[in-house]
Amino acid sequence: MQDITFTVKNVWPKLDPGEQNLVGELAEEYKAFLNRARTERETIAEAVLLAQQNGFVTLRQVERLRPGDKVYEINRGKAMVLAIIGSDALESGGNIVAAHIDSPRLDLKPVPLYEEEGLALFKTHYYGGIKKYQWLSVPLAIHGIVVKQDGTRLELRIGDQPGDPVFTVSDLLPHLAKDQMDKKLADAVPGENLNILVGNRPSAEASQENQEKEPVRKAIAQYLYQTYGLVEEDLVSAEIELVPAYPACDVGLDRSMVGGYGQDDRICAFAALKSLMDITTVPRRTVIVLLADKEEIGSEGNTGMKSRFLENFVAEAVARMDHRLPELAARRMLGNSRALSADVNAAFDPTYKDVMDKNNAARLGCGVVLTKYTGSKGKLEANDAHAEFVAFVRRLFNEAGVAWQPGELGKVDQGGGGTVAHLLASYGMDVLDCGPGLLSMHSPFEVASKVDLYMAYKGYKAFLSAAG
User: Fold this and answer.
1) What is the β-pairing status of strands 196-199 and 57-58?
2) 77, 86 contact by CB (below 8 A)
3) Whether the predicted pLDDT of 77 surpasses 70
4) Which tens digit of pLDDT belongs to each residue from 209-263?
5) Which end of the chain is more exposed for a tag (fewer CB within 10 A), N or C?
6) pLDDT at 144 over 90
7) Where are the alpha helices (DSSP H) in 61-128?
8) Exposure string for 24-43, b = 16+ CB within 10 A, e = fewer
């Protein structure tokens, strides 16, 4: 008799030993990826390396596209589209998995370096939605680029290699924190207080007799010049991010989880890339993986999902297939496509259960999460996937043995959040949010289930490969 009830169950007991080994191998590969890809630019660099190892070339290298061709394009080192051309006509639509690769963090201000009371510090401006207090008293690393006036580009990565110094935002000792602790949590740490400790030793020229102004600041400026050839003005044209210095690692005595920074949304980006690379035959429908920037600040800018990067890529592909009406063909391709907005959801945390609807909350270890709508309160800025498309993905995953679960982002009036789903839907395609659940989302140390990562990979591969 068919089971007429619906119950979300932990996936681990369903896995045979061979599949459990695959879960472990994928998790090890994922942790290494997280450790190398701490920023958007580093993530794109990893994606390019992986693509080239698997036979992808840039679209501009191909004069005429044919089924089976593997191509990619990069947008300013922060966004990327990869595609395998299918045997069906391009304008009949493709299968798209789109993830974002930016994560909440601290960015250096354009003029960051200053000294106060014998300490040299960097001023920061936080990026995306963070709980500011979570960034105090943790070891941080500097990652980013500096572009000098002459166009010379310098990459910085300090703090996550053996022997490197680390950086931190200091906190107030509890003995003197009465006023701080009486404030609301959101107000206890002003954004202007997220200042990074970078030095305490005065310059060599300073002495008791020579009361040089800001000797520690001068010493740090000298270090930057002598070590990297940087002058302070160069920091105006820099993109330098402060990210946690510790590596991704296993969590739990059973090693069933992965903890680390940036899993929102690099867990989905990794799973999407891995699934695309593992497609070894010519697909019927063209398959696309999109890695977008700036989702955490509304998908703005020319590297975010609100740009025309995907649209331009499709137009360039159509132009290489000699369509008589290229603009119409590109519009048809996008409108006839279907997509998974590959983004994470909030996993149920029993410590904070009051913010969740138990019947509609994702559980860690119970498979990839299908999120019909995001948004806030009355589904503001939600995509709200149509029933027919949700049923299509359900059937596809069930037939492919992909463990999945439904999920919402908390109770109706609790808050909410958004993804790139509604921006993909603006082209006319069907879109559904799909990704693993996370604990401690947007914190410096997020936690994911290894088996949910595996099911995301398996689900994305099944979706990209779907012919019907």
Assistant:
1) unpaired
2) no
3) yes
4) 566 789 999 999 999 999 999 999 999 999 999 999 999 999 999 999 999 999 9
5) N
6) yes
7) none
8) eebbeebbebbbebbbbbbb
Tokens 């931190």, residue located: 168
Rounded-to-integer distance, Cα 373 and Cα 466, Å: 23
* Three-state DSSP class for residue 170: coil
CA neighbours closer than 13 Å in the CB half-sphere of residue 360? 12
384 has which bridge partners? none
Residues whose CB falls within 8 Å of the CB of residue 460, separated by 6 or more in sequence, listed in order: 97, 271, 272, 275, 276, 340, 342, 434
| Alpha carbon distance 458, 148 (integer Å) | 44
Residue with tokens 């270090």: 223
Nearest residue to 305 via CA among 448, 102, 461, 453: 102
Nearest to 38 by CA among 122, 159, 170: 159
CA angle 367, 370, 375 (to 5 degrees): 135
Distances (CA, A) of 26 to 33, 53, 162, 205, 459: 10, 18, 25, 54, 14
Measured CA to CA, the distance from residue 348 to residue 214 in angstroms comes to: 50
Measured CA to CA, the distance from residue 309 to residue 353 in angstroms comes to 40
Please state whether the peptide bond connecting residue 265 to the residue before it is cis, i.e. omega within 30 degrees of 0: yes
> How many other CB atoms are found less than 10 A from the CB of residue 331?
18
Q: Of 394, 375, 395, 391, nearest to 383 (Cα)? A: 375
In total, the chain counts a number of residues equal to 468
Helix (H, G, I), strand (E, B) or coil at 242: strand
Q: Identify which of 163, 171, 221 has the alpha carbon closest to the alpha carbon of residue 194.
A: 171
Amino acid at 156: L
Give residues with Cβ within 8 angstroms of 349, minimum separation 6: 356, 439
Who's near 322: CB < 8 A, 6+ residues apart? 64
Q: Tally DSSP H helices, then E strands, for the chain.
A: 10, 23
| Rounded-to-integer distance, Cα 296 and Cα 265, Å | 10
Q: Tell how strand 368-371 and strand 404-406 pair up.
A: parallel
Q: In which band, very low, low, confident or very high, does the pLDDT at 326 lie, cut at 50, 70 and 90?
A: confident
For CA atoms 410, 415, 419, 423, the dihedral sign is: positive
Identity of the amino acid at 260: G
The beta strand positions in 363-445, using DSSP E, are: 368-371, 375-376, 404-406, 416-417, 430-435, 437-439
In angstroms, the CA 433 to CA 341 distance is 4
**What mean pLDDT do residues 404-425 have?**
91
Per-state percent for the chain, helix, strand, coil, to nearest 5 = 35, 25, 40
